[in-house]
Amino acid sequence: METVSTIEELRLRLAPLRRAGKTVGFVPTMGYLHDGHMTLVANSRSGNDVTVVSIFVNPLQFGASEDLDKYPRDLARDSAMLEAAGVDFLFAPTVADMYPRPMETVVDVPKLGSELEGAARPGHFAGVATVVTKLFNIVQPDTAYFGEKDYQQVSVIRRMVEDLAQPVRIVPVPTVREADGLACSSRNVYLSAEERRAAVIVPRTLDEAERLIREGVRNPAELEAKLDAFIRSEPLATPEVVAVRHPKTLEPLETIEDAALILLYIRIGKTKLLDNRVIDIASENGMEAA
Prior knowledge:
This is Pantothenate synthetase. By secondary structure, this protein is an alpha/beta fold. The protein has helices at residues 7-19, 35-47, 75-84, 95-98, 110-113, 117-120, 124-139, 151-164, 193-198, 201-214, 220-232, and strands at residues 2-4, 24-29, 50-55, 89-91, 143-147, 169-173, 237-245, 259-268, 271-280.
């Protein structure tokens, strides 16, 4: 595996591979890798000749009161994991490499990016769309892989790619979970032992949503209220987003007919955790999308 820190060097390394007709798969990350990231890597390696992984903690997607400085970082650990997984290139730029001067250009998907998690984190998805566009311009991948745990993020990126005719195929990959059902996340490391035990309320809330829908709850507002109360039964949990939406458009539903997307953004102590599930009423067991 080659580790590259500058845009020019990465372009130089990838150019002859493209000329030789090699396909390039790309996994953008902020590092502190876990099994979910490595599943994205495995998907890229199985579908492409060359796999590039980026590690960049992007300041544009953090708010003033968020955890940019505290976000976990361990490049040596991550590099060893990626090398063992057979990654071809690790792109690990600094902030100065990516943003040599303050960015004036912003890529935004304002409707999709300003609600749900975007309402709780104003400007977050504009920061995501901007850095992902820049990374796509640098790597020029054929295919890019994103985890479905970040369902709204995947929706924003898909819409951005479609609107801007960016020549990259977006592949969402199902969420990888820990043994008790909690979605793998770099932020799980923030949880104390007590908070980690409490965090199971997140996947349990998805199970509760499925149970309620199976029992006949069809009113989205009623379902959201019941789930909010269920989350609050855990003293360490504070629901910030509990939403029932259309799985494809993320639009609010008037009634639950065929399928419903349950989106959760829950704070456990000071740590914010995302999760979601698509519940297909026609399916006996539902369909987990993250």
